[in-house]
Write a structure and sequence with these properties.
Layout (H helix, E strand, L loop, with lengths): L8 E7 L9 H12 L3 E8 L3 H13 L5 E5 L10 H6 L4 E2 L1 H15 L9 E5 L2 E6 L3 H15 L10 H4 L8
Parallel strand pairs: 1-2, 1-3, 3-6
Antiparallel strand pairs: 4-5, 5-6
Function: May be involved in the biosynthesis of molybdopterin.
Pathway: Cofactor biosynthesis; molybdopterin biosynthesis
Protein name: Molybdenum cofactor biosynthesis protein B
Length: 173
C-alpha cells in the first residue's frame, strides 16, 4: 500500500438504556480502533434505545456533509426495546446486504448459532456509509477488525467503502 490512507470523519453512536460514557466499553472500543487506524472521530453520543431518538441523531449525521461514516453499536437484537434496525433502515438509500452476512459469518466462529440473533446492517445514505453493530464489545471488535478496518481504508483493493464517501472519488478504487 504505497499510497497514503485518506482519513475519514466517523461518528459513533451507542444505543443503550443503561450505558454512560464511563461504562460504554463498546463505543470506546470503536473510538480506539478508528483513531488508531488514522481516522477522525467526528462525534460520539449515547442515546436510549428509542427508535425516534436513534433516527434523529443518525439523520442529522447523514445530513452533515462533514460526517462520512456512522457506526452504531447496540439495539440490534430481539429484545423488546431493540430498535436500531427499524430506526436506521428507513434512512438508507442503499442497503449493504453483504455486511450483515459477513458479520454473522465471522461472529459464528466466536459465538456459534447465537449469531443469528444479530440484526446488524449497513447501508449508504446521502454519501454517508452507515454500519449498525451489536452492543457487545466483542461484536464491535469483530465488526471493526474483520470488516470495517479494511472497508474504511481507501487503499484496500479491489474495492472499499471509503472511496464512495471521499469527495471527488465517489467510486470504488
Amino acid at each position: 500500500m504505497s499510497e497514503p490512507m485518506v482519513p475519514l470523519n466517523i461518528a459513533v453512536l451507542t444505543v443503550s438504556d443503561t450505558r454512560n460514557e464511563e461504562t460504554d466499553r463498546s463505543g470506546q472500543a470503536l473510538v480506539e480502533r478508528l483513531t488508531k487506524a488514522g481516522h477522525t472521530l467526528a462525534e460520539k453520543r449515547i442515546v436510549p434505545d428509542d427508535v425516534y431518538r436513534i433516527r434523529a441523531v443518525v439523520a442529522n449525521w447523514i445530513a452533515d456533509s462533514t460526517v462520512q461514516v456512522v457506526i452504531t453499536t447496540g439495539g440490534t437484537g430481539f429484545t423488546g426495546r431493540d430498535s436500531t434496525p427499524e430506526a436506521i433502515s428507513v434512512l438508507l438509500d442503499k442497503h449493504i446486504e453483504g455486511f450483515g452476512e459477513r458479520f454473522r459469518q465471522l461472529s459464528g466462529d466466536e459465538i456459534g448459532s447465537s449469531t443469528i440473533q444479530s440484526r446488524c446492517l449497513g447501508g449508504l445514505a446521502n454519501a454517508t456509509v452507515v454500519f449498525c453493530l451489536p452492543g457487545s464489545t466483542g461484536a464491535c471488535r469483530t465488526g471493526w477488525d474483520g470488516i470495517l478496518a479494511e472497508q474504511l481504508d481507501s487503499r484496500h483493493k479491489p474495492c472499499n467503502f471509503a472511496n464512495l464517501v471521499i469527495p471527488g472519488r465517489g467510486q470504488h478504487g
